[in-house]
Design brief:
This protein is about 35% helix and about 15% strand. By secondary structure, it is of the alpha/beta class.
């Protein structure tokens, strides 16, 4: 039997939430599907977290520069060449693939995880109209309630075409909560405030660093920033300029960032824009209390008692939330347990996998036409 062939189109396949979810789904699906990944920018660094035995092929794209139409025509040619059973596009950065499939060359699912910095405060009208036009006939998946409202009301997509599938996370065994050897890698005194993020402008790690500086007026503690990205050099300079060089640890890229949570006492998020970030789910699964800006669905994601610490809009409010958590060990334990329980009950990894499996399988059994030569059989 030939497994269905799924072509996944990303703007980038660098490490990020959608890419990590894809890796988790591939691992859970096993040999059920064959996958092709197409990264618009040619960055395939996230392949490092996918098992080498997984049925995944990475597409070499050499599309023409210039207009959206020229790109769409190129992608349409590739669709006709590869003839997948399903096309899955991810976010605005892959919209040309949706345009290429305008006449329904193949069945299409679009996954919308959120917005970049150019749509942080409000959606761009031309993009909303483009989504309304090019996504109207496909199935659209959103991981947050806010995105569901935006898709059905602002973009005017048919309600029965938009499906809410919350991200899911695996919860490690409770006896794996702390990793003392890991904590030794980050020398210093006091508790550890940690974050995991791709260091891009919209993550606003500057806000977190400035909040941390305010926290040090009251508590001796450390901060660990896991991740890499274009902002790293500037953030390291800022840390040094504020006299925090020996208290803030930049780990850079980690092969297994989930391990880092076992070294944290508090998880902090300082983004300007998010919807349903995996980092929050991973922090909840690790049993951590969370201090965060009030963006996306985060207020609904965390346990009810933790919501008091999800409201910060600037470094002063974020610092106050961190100070309260640092000063109350019982509250940290209580909030962490509540977050872990909610992750287990509401954001179950297996439930997410089942939902995507139903969506991907659809009514398109694999055909001989999908035996593209570049895909593992």
């Amino acid at each position: 039997m030939i497994q269905p062939l799924v072509l996944h189109a990303f703007s980038t396949f660098g490490v990020g939430g959608p890419q990590v979810r894809f890796a988790n789904l591939v691992a859970a699906f096993g040999q059920r599907y064959r996958h092709i990944v197409a990264a618009m920018d040619g960055n395939y660094s996230c392949r490092s977290i996918i098992k080498s035995s997984a049925p995944v092929t990475y597409l070499d794209l050499r599309y023409p520069s210039g207009s959206t139409l020229r790109k769409a025509l190129y992608f349409r040619t590739r669709l006709r060449e590869i003839r997948p059973d399903l096309l899955v596009t991810y976010n605005w950065g892959a919209i040309e693939w949706a345009i290429a499939n305008a006449a329904a060359v193949v069945r299409h699912v679009h996954v919308e995880d959120g917005f970049g910095p150019d749509e942080t405060d409000r959606r761009l009208r031309r993009r909303s109209w483009a989504r309304r036009l090019w996504l109207r006939s496909c199935s659209v998946v959103v991981p947050s309630r806010i995105l569901h409202r935006i898709a059905t009301q602002e973009w005017g997509l048919p309600t029965d075409h938009v499906q809410y599938i919350p991200n899911g996370v695996k919860c490690a065994r409770s006896d794996q909560r702390f990793d003392s050897k890991l904590r030794e890698l980050w020398p210093g005194n006091g508790l550890i405030i940690g974050t995991v993020a791709t260091l891009r402008p919209e993550k606003n790690i500057t806000r977190l660093i400035r909040a941390f500086r305010l926290v040090l007026d009251t508590y001796a503690c450390r901060m660990v920033i896991v991740g890499d990205g274009p902002e790293r050099y500037r953030l390291e300079l800022l840390s040094s300029a504020l006299g925090l060089g020996d208290r803030i640890h930049f780990t850079g890229h980690m092969e297994n960032p989930r391990r880092a949570y076992r070294g944290f006492d508090i998880f902090a998020l300082s983004s300007d824009t998010e919807q349903m970030p995996f980092t929050i789910l991973e922090a909840m699964a690790a049993g951590l209390p969370i201090a965060s800006t009030g963006v996306g669905d985060i207020d609904e994601m965390v346990s009810a008692p933790n919501r008091a610490f999800v409201s910060a809009s600037d470094e002063i409010e974020l610092a106050q939330a961190l100070k309260t958590l640092l000063g109350d060990a019982r509250a940290r334990t209580r909030l962490g347990q509540g977050n872990r329980s909610k992750a287990l009950n509401c954001f179950n990894h297996d439930a997410m996998v089942e939902a995507y499996d139903r969506l991907f399988s659809g009514n398109c059994p694999a055909t001989a036409a999908s035996q593209w030569r570049g895909v593992p059989q």
